[in-house]
Design a protein that fits this description.
With about 260 residues, the chain is an alpha/beta fold. The protein is built from nine helices and ten strands. The protein has one domain: Glycoside hydrolase/deacetylase (TIM Barrel), CATH 3.20.20. It starts with a helix and ends in a 5-residue tail after the last helix. It binds zinc ion (ZN). Zinc ion binds next to strand 5.
Length: about 260
């Protein structure tokens, strides 16, 4: 008589696990990879060596990933448009010149699209992209979007002229050079609040990215989208990359966001 409740409990647990796994598999989660610098000179957490970047892009290509654009990601979230079975988004923050020198040839080699979030006042400065480099990349599947005027902590700014300069004036400046609307924003340091989100919407952005570690699914808020930040680690950098792509929520519990 005592065994029946135990069997029932085990059966209920089994059903719950099967349901949870099926539910999990049924949700298409898209990793939005977040890179900064790619070179063999700086040995900083936000700098990935050229060889490591090449290995990660090769992994994506040989494992059948499609590098989709932000337009495709947003259409999937907002309009429920379908995506390739294995989709990934590749992004770079700040617009460093090594993105052109080192990352761009690798992206071309593996036929992968990517998006660079530009700080409008930093373009043409030493170590940052020039407009001519941006024009060339733009012709070859590299997209450019906004990362403010000069990279402040947006949540520390009051609504009004300061936020307008960062979100609207920089957007207009980028658009005048790029020749297309700037629709997407990456919050510097991942910092935002309700005022920042309201301002970004009013200035015409369609979506914005944080540095929260996680994938993006059709249920996500377009103005607090997750990313998968890719760090240089002292060892096992590729393993961290692999774990972050496949198990972002578990990795999120083990590490905090990046600047
Ligand atoms: Zn940044």
């Amino acid at each position: 008589m005592k065994k029946r409740p135990m069997v029932f409990t085990l059966f209920a647990c089994f059903c719950f696990i099967v349901f949870a796994v099926l539910h999990f598999l049924n949700q298409k989660e898209i990793p939005v990879l977040g890179y900064h610098r790619i070179n063999n000179v700086d040995h900083l957490p936000l700098t990935l060596s050229t060889e490591e970047f090449d290995a990660q892009m090769q992994y994506l290509q040989t494992n059948g990933y499609s590098a989709i654009t932000l337009d495709e990601l947003v259409s999937y979230i907002r309009d429920k448009k379908d995506l390739p079975y294995k989709s990934v988004v590749i992004t770079f923050d700040d617009g460093y010149e090594d993105n052109y020198i080192n990352a761009y040839p690798i992206l071309e080699k593996y036929h992968l699209d990517a998006t660079v979030f530009l700080i409008s006042d930093y373009i043409n400065r030493p170590k940052y992209l020039t407009w001519n480099e941006i024009y060339e990349m733009q012709k070859n599947h590299i997209h450019f979007e906004g990362h403010t005027f000069n990279h402040p902590h947006l949540d520390k700014l009051a609504a009004g002229p300061a936020l307008k300069q960062q979100l609207s004036d920089s957007k207009t400046d980028l658009e005048s050079h790029l020749g297309h609307k700037v629709k997407y924003l990456a919050y510097p340091y991942g910092d935002y609040n309700e005022t920042v989100i309201a301002a970004a919407k009013s200035y015409g952005y369609k979506a914005a990215f944080t540095v929260h570690l996680g994938d993006d699914s059709a249920q996500d808020d377009l103005f607090t989208l997750n990313r998968v930040p890719i760090f240089q680690t002292y060892q096992h950098t590729f393993l961290h990359f692999w774990l972050n792509i496949h198990f972002p929520y578990i990795m999120n519990m083990l590490q905090k966001g990046f600047p």
